[in-house]
Each structure stands twice: as C-alpha cells, then as structure tokens.
Design goal:
- The chain has helices at 9-12, 21-36, 48-55, 65-88, 101-105, 107-122, 145-155, 192-195, 210-221, 237-242; strands at residues 2-7, 40-45, 94-99, 126-131, 160-165, 186-187, 226-231, 249-251.
- The protein is of the alpha/beta class.
- The chain is built from 10 helices and 8 strands.
- The protein is globular.
- The two termini are 19 Å apart.
- It is 41% helix and 16% strand.
- It has an 8-stranded mixed beta sheet, sandwiched between helices.
- The longest helix has 24 residues, at 65-88.
Length: 256
C-alpha cells in the first residue's frame, strides 16, 4: 500500500518552536514499522519555519517574508538531520525533496518530480517532501502543506493520504466553541454543506485550518484517493487506520 502521511508543525514542535522529541521519535518509529510491513511511505512534513524560529531564538513566528525564509533555511537543516538520524536507527534511508507550485503544475517538472519519487520508492527510500520556503513567495507557493500533500498524493498515485494534525477530524461545528459539536466519521461526498464546516479553528502553529484540509480532501477524492484527518499527537494511530478502525474523519475517494 502506498501511503502519503502529512505531519503538521504542531505535531513536530512545541509552541516554543523547539523540537517535540517524543512525538517525532514516535512518528519515525511507526513509519519505519509500516515500511517494514511492506508499505510504501511518502512523508509530507511541515516544521521548517517553526524549528528555525526556535533555532534562531526569535521568540515568535516572524511576519516578514525574508525572516520566514531565513528561518526555513535554518529549520530545514535541523528537520532533515533529525529525520535522517531517527530513520537510520531503523535502517531506512530518507530523501529530501523541496518543491514549489510550478514543480507540480508544469507538465515537464511535474513529471520529473513524479518519476523521482517513484524511483525513490522503488529503491526503498522514504521521500520527505516540503515546500521550498526559502524561495517560495506568493507567486510560486503552493500555499499550505495540506494542499501540498494532496497534490503529492495525486501525483504519486497514493492509495491513502493521512493528515496528522492537532484536531480529531471534521466536526458538525467548531468543537472549541460548541460543546454539542459531533465528529463526522465518514464523508462520501463533499457537498456545499460539508465545505461550510471549514471555517473553524485550525492549528495555532501552522498555516492550514479546516478549510485547507477540505480542499485537500476534494483534490484526493476526485482522483479516487481516500483521505483521513486525525489527531497526530499519538502517531501509533496509523496502526488503527490500517486496521480499518474508525479514527478521525475519512473522506471516501470516488472511484471512476
């Protein structure tokens, strides 16, 4: 099974911007075990800017583009060093791919990207993909890693995309403000009513809220790819997903 897993900044880092060692170690252990079981894993990882903020002791996420890009440049080094070290402990090799919107949207560059990822999977490597924040301005950025993960899943013909976030899934209302909000466990059609639920509170650290996750679900399901939004605070939840247990919200891919 080819599984794309997107992990958000809130799972990888504390609010200080420094690495959440327990979470990232658990994530790498679970993904390594899933690879050992014969699955192909593609990891779409946020966290570069957040980790750069911590590494540079900036105190808070910067507002200006040059400082964000500088933080990304510093944070990406620490992020990949950490992934390389942890996955190596389980005898898995990681590969870094930094991309922008034109890399996927352009027919030639998009094909090159796809071919590279598929070849890495054939070679047994684990691709770690992030937006190239050091060069991606508004004109060439994908915009958020929820959308990026869906585009990657589509490009690489994944069977499943899992968004590990700081929320449990899609609710009938904002659970932060409405105690009667109910988790929607399965969505077989993304209707205007479902899209209207995308205005709730998202991650305090990342840039993607529920609206971007619903957009990602649209991109995946229209190409027949299932997508699940679930709480990534315990990465072992991936075992429950593959065992068919109901966790988070599952969007059913529409098979053509």
């Amino acid at each position: 099974m080819r599984i794309a897993v997107k992990v958000g900044t809130s799972t990888l880092a504390h609010s200080t911007g420094h690495l959440n060692i327990r979470h990232i170690e658990d994530l790498c252990k679970v993904l390594s075990d899933l690879k050992n079981a014969g699955n192909e894993i593609i990891l779409i990882s946020s966290g570069a800017i957040g980790m750069g903020v911590g590494k540079l002791s900036l105190g808070s996420r910067p507002d200006d583009m040059p400082t964000k890009q500088a933080a990304a440049a510093v944070g990406q080094c620490e992020l990949m060093y950490t992934y390389d070290k942890l996955f190596s402990e389980y005898n898995h090799t990681v590969a870094q791919l930094l991309i922008t919107a034109p890399d996927i949207n352009d027919s030639v560059r998009g094909t090159n990207f796809r071919n590279t990822v598929l070849r890495l999977l054939e070679l047994g490597a684990l691709p770690v993909i992030n937006e190239n924040d050091t060069v991606a301005t508004e004109e060439i950025s994908v915009g958020d890693n929820d959308t990026l993960s869906a585009l990657v899943a589509r490009s690489c013909n994944a069977d499943l995309l899992v968004l590990l976030s700081d929320i449990d899934g899609l609710f009938t209302a904002d659970p932060h403000t409405d105690k009667n909000a109910v988790l929607i466990e399965e969505v077989d059609e993304i209707t205007p009513e479902i899209l209207s639920l995308g205005g709730g509170k998202g991650s305090a650290l990342g840039t993607g809220g529920m609206a971007t996750k619903l957009h990602a679900a649209q991109l995946c399901t229209e190409q027949g790819i299932d997508m699940i939004i679930t709480n990534g605070s315990t990465p072992s939840i991936l075992y429950d997903i593959l065992d068919g247990k109901s966790v988070g919200t599952k969007f059913i891919g529409r098979k053509n």
